[in-house]
Specification:
This protein is α/β, with parallel strands linked by helices. 22% of the residues lie in helices and 32% in strands. Strands 10, 11, 12, 13, 14, 15, 16, 17, 18, 19 and 20 form an 11-stranded mixed beta sheet that branches. A 7-stranded mixed β-barrel has the order 1-2-8-6-4-3-9. Strands 5-7 form a two-stranded parallel sheet. Helix 8 packs across helix 9.
């Protein structure tokens, strides 16, 4: 395993898509082999937060921005304990990072954590291919793992698919922990960790919320053991169609009428809990520049996304559900994908994107305030 402190190594690397398309470049990060679902992220910055987002578990991330690694890696912007992407694809790695917070190069960090990557390929062509053909399985091979093309393709086609994958328990905490409120404590929230990012409980703590982060396997009894004023369901990886346990827990919360907020995977869980289906998007939404309209206010937000599945709910009417009336509250302006749900007869809502702004715009920060308002209303 070799690395370079001044950009990519000269070790050859090959990227093989499951439909047979091949890109050849140089190793970046660890040398070896890796498999996952090829997806692209349109963010021009925030790569450290992307890499450490548990929602990217078992995905190979293609960066559409041509220059990556410019600000190196610091010790403050990690969103979890490790890098979760299974592989990393960049066009032109920075030769020398430039930031007063930088502690090491991105190449060094990827290598230290065993993340296999590739650089020096046409990421624009690769992104266009994924937009036309859809997200698909991919393998990256470098050094001694490179074989003839047919053998590499066969190995990629044997890798597991994302559809049907149940992954949240693989990335979630195994033990409960508490993030204390900053300043005066006003509320207690039980947060079900399906792949939570570190900034999310911090945003709630800023609003006087003591956050009890619970494992993905937590039961309804575990949730109410902390005597919560509200319940939160986080983002996370995998196919929501497999998440029967979180759906059951959420239905228990809805039955009790406790204020509820979900983001990303949590939005899909709410959709299923209300009786809607979910489906896999062709190539998903990933990046920090996705336009979403809040239909309750008409406001358009620039938002941070990372999802490959969506809720199948009607956009043109209020739906009757086992928990009362529900409607689509947010919609993506690029493709009309459901980006949020809200119940009209119970204090529950969700969005499909990331309002914690790590990394990303702050347009959606008001959603945490909306959650606080629900808890205030319930207490009153």
């Amino acid at each position: 395993m070799t690395t370079s402190t001044r950009g990519a190594t000269k070790t050859p690397a090959v990227l093989v898509l499951e439909d047979g398309r091949i890109f050849r470049g140089r190793a970046y990060g660890a040398v070896g082999e890796t498999f996952g679902e090829a997806v692209f992220s349109t963010g021009m910055t925030g790569y450290q937060e992307t890499l450490t987002d548990p929602s990217y578990h078992r995905q190979v991330v293609v960066m559409t921005a041509p220059h990556v690694g410019n600000t190196g890696v610091n010790d403050e912007d990690m969103e979890s304990k490790k890098i979760w992407v299974s592989g990393y694809v960049v066009r032109d790695p920075a030769r020398v990072p430039s930031s007063w917070r930088s502690r090491r190069t991105l190449d060094e960090e990827l290598d230290a954590q065993g993340v296999v990557g590739i650089s020096g390929i046409d990421t624009r062509a690769l992104t266009r291919h994924l937009r036309e053909r859809g997200a698909m399985r991919v393998g990256i091979f470098s050094g001694d793992t490179i074989q003839d093309d047919a053998a590499l393709l066969a190995r990629v086609q044997e890798a597991p698919q994302m559809k049907g994958a149940n992954l949240s328990a693989e990335v979630a905490t195994t033990e409960p922990y508490v993030v204390p409120a900053l300043g005066e404590k006003k509320f207690t929230v039980a947060a079900v960790d399906l792949g939570i990012k570190g900034m999310t409980p911090h945003r709630m703590a800023e609003r006087g919320i003591e956050v009890h982060v619970l494992p993905a396997t937590a039961t309804v009894e575990d949730v109410y053991a902390v005597n919560p004023d509200g319940v939160f369901f986080s983002n996370g990886p995998g196919d929501p169609a497999t998440a029967d346990h979180p759906v059951s827990v959420m239905q228990g919360v809805l039955e009790r009428g406790t204020p509820l907020f979900g983001i990303c995977f949590g939005n899909q869980i709410l959709g299923r809990a209300l009786g809607f289906g979910t489906f896999k998007l062709k190539y998903g939404h990933r990046g920090i520049n996705q336009p979403v309209q809040d239909r309750t206010t008409g406001k358009v937000e620039v938002t941070a996304h990372n999802h490959g599945f969506a809720v199948d709910a009607p956009l043109d009417r209020v739906s009757e559900t086992p928990f009362g009336r529900a409607e689509v509250s947010h919609v993506c302006l690029n493709d009309n994908v459901v980006e949020g749900l809200q119940l009209l007869d119970r204090p529950a809502f969700s969005v499909q994107y990331h309002p914690e702004a790590a990394a990303g715009p702050h347009d959606a920060a008001y959603l945490f305030d909306r959650f606080v308002s629900l808890m205030e209303g319930q207490r009153a």
